[in-house]
Amino acid sequence: MSAPPLPKALAFDVFGTVVDWRTSVTRESAAFLAAIGRSDIDAAAFADAWRGQYIAAMIGMRKSGRDFVPLDVLHREMLEAALRERAIDPASLDEELLADWNRAWHRLDPWPDTVAGLTRLKERLPIVTLSNGNVALLLAMARRAGLPWDAILGADVSGAYKPDPRAYLRTAELLGIAPGELCLVAAHHGDLTAARACGLQTAYVDRPDEYGGAPAPDAHYEQTWEWSASSLTELADMLGC
Q: Which family does the entry's similarity section mention (predicted)?
């Protein structure tokens, strides 16, 4: 088979693809659980429960017709729900503690190959975010982790959460290119499936540890993507960067 044409820009999913949310949120949650005297709660299970509401929150936004709110707001609602599931009343906790706990998603660590891989890819192609995160969250994360984006585009830019087609098509529009000239880089087959349906090129990056070794919830969406790599540095090799 002939190699696919090189895209004009790369757009990246962030949570799980670029940063290791589970390890980071587990670490942060362990500290906050200790601060409220609940070290008996498993921090990794808490992180999974917090993140586990994510897909339902995205679906709920679309089905309810709720006006768009940034991911920071949804993360806070999900945090409070996870606390209530463990018989902790969020109203009993200090507001600044809750706000800082919610900002754990601003302080996620990159995967070991991320910065080197992005830096190499950027030498040849523009690299931007195509994330459900809001700009403020993604900016704070990028500055802390040294992520060298050319542009930070959050869901608050498109006004839509993936897998809504508007999220993918608006990104291409903002970059002044056709959808087929934009490649989504993601560790999630469901995300890539939605991007392909919008005409984008696709690059899969395997992150087997995203869920602590547990199977990915969207594995059944797997297809043959234009590119498939085990790291961002391997993707850079594939794209001649």
A: Belongs to the HAD-like hydrolase superfamily. S-2-haloalkanoic acid dehalogenase family.
- Torsion angle of alpha carbons 59, 65, 66, 69, nearest 10°? 60
Domain 21-106 has CATH 1.10.150.240: yes
The CATH fold assigned to 9-20+108-238 is: Rossmann fold (3.40.50)
Q: What Cα–Cα distance (Å) separates residue 184 from each residue in 6, 49, 56, 72?
A: 12, 27, 22, 23
**Domains in the chain: boundaries:** 9-20+108-238, 21-106
pLDDT in tens, 106-120: 999 999 999 999 999
**Mean local confidence (pLDDT), 10-20:** 98
pLDDT in tens, 17-69: 999 999 999 999 999 999 999 999 999 999 999 999 887 877 777 777 788 89
Amino acid identity of 176? Answer: G
Q: Which of 47, 31, 36 is nearest to 87 (CA)?
A: 36
225: left (phi > 0), else alpha (psi -120 to 50), else beta?
Answer: beta
pTM score above 0.90: yes
SS3 178: coil
| CA atoms of 208 and 225, how far apart (whole Å) | 17
90 in Cβ contact with 78 (< 8 Å): no
